[in-house]
Design goal:
Layout: H1 2-6, H2 10-25, E1 31-33, H3 46-50, E2 55-56, E3 59-64, E4 73-74, H4 77-82, E5 90-91, E6 98-103, E7 108-112, E8 123-129, H5 155-170
Parallel strand pairs: 1-3, 2-8
Antiparallel strand pairs: 3-6, 4-5, 4-7, 7-8
Helix pairs in contact: 2-5
Amino acid sequence: MEVLRRVSGGGLLAAVLLLLAAAVSEVSAKRWTVGDNMGWTTNVNYTVWAEGKHFYYDDWLFFVYDRNQMDVLEVNKTNYEACNSENPLKNFTTGAGRDVVHLNVTRPYYFISGKGFCYGGMKLAINVEHLPPPPSSSPLNEKSSAPRSTHIGHTPFVLTAVFAAARALIW
């Protein structure tokens, strides 16, 4: 706040824009590479891979695989359990072997690879949830080495607050 008191005129607007840029840069959706360094392939237990992870609204799944053999299909729960790829809800396969899925609905998602690979373990079930509310007010420890949030879910609220503050300062 001391910096804002010293800044005047056009400098105030610049300070507000700098604050906005800092707020937005700290807030972004998480991009999950499915299977981490193994990618989307056989002999990976994707249930174990997803265990303990939280997938939030606006996150992304990045599937990396052999484009000549495998695919990425979204199916319903019944077809997921049966490894049935005949009527997928959506086929994310682009042919490049680098497919991205935007998790823009909070619900369970079921992915399989057809062509028999599902039977070899190429299936992933996740539940996408809303970003939890921020913790209640507590003193900020500037020396904390805790990781910062990497989710974009609260960006509209941050932007609204910054713009409201900027408007109040300018008027």
